[in-house]
Design brief:
By secondary structure, the chain is mostly helical. It has one domain: Winged helix-like DNA-binding domain superfamily/Winged helix DNA-binding domain (Arc Repressor Mutant, subunit A, Orthogonal Bundle), CATH 1.10.10. The protein is built from 4 helices and 2 strands. The chain has a two-stranded antiparallel sheet. A hairpin with an 8-residue loop joins β1 and β2. α1 packs across α3. The protein is elongated, with a radius of gyration of 17 Å.
Length: about 100
C-alpha cells in the first residue's frame, strides 16, 4: 500500500476532525490551500486507498463528508460505477457514429 501524499493527509485530517461535517469545494480550497482539481484528485485517491477513506458526496447536496455508514458508502460506489458505465457507453456510441461516417 502506498503512503498518503501530503495533500491526501491534509484532507484526511480535516475530514476526521469533524466527521459528518459537509465541506464545499470552495471551503476545501480555502482550508487546504490547494486547487479544486488537486482536492478532487486527492479525494478520489483517498477513496481508492486500502482501507478506503469513506468520503462521499450526494447529487443535489453541496459538499463532501466522511461517513462511517456502510450503506452510504455502498451507494456512493454504485453511483460511481453507473456514472463511469454511462460515460463509456456514450464514448462507444460516438466511436460507432464516427466509424459509420468514415465507411
Amino acid at each position: 500500500m502506498k503512503p498518503f501524499t501530503e495533500n491526501e493527509l491534509k484532507l484526511k485530517h480535516l475530514f476526521e476532525m469533524f466527521p459528518g461535517w459537509r465541506y464545499t469545494r470552495e471551503q476545501l480550497c480555502e482550508f487546504t490551500g490547494m486547487s479544486d482539481r488537486q482536492n478532487r484528485d486527492s479525494i478520489n485517491s483517498l477513496r481508492r486507498h486500502n482501507p478506503p477513506v469513506m468520503i462521499i458526496s450526494y447529487p443535489g447536496k453541496a459538499g463532501y463528508y466522511l461517513t462511517e455508514n456502510e450503506e452510504e458508502w455502498d451507494f456512493q460506489c454504485k453511483r460511481q460505477v453507473r456514472r463511469l458505465a454511462r460515460g463509456c457507453f456514450r464514448r462507444l456510441k460516438t466511436y460507432h457514429r464516427q466509424l459509420r461516417f468514415v465507411s
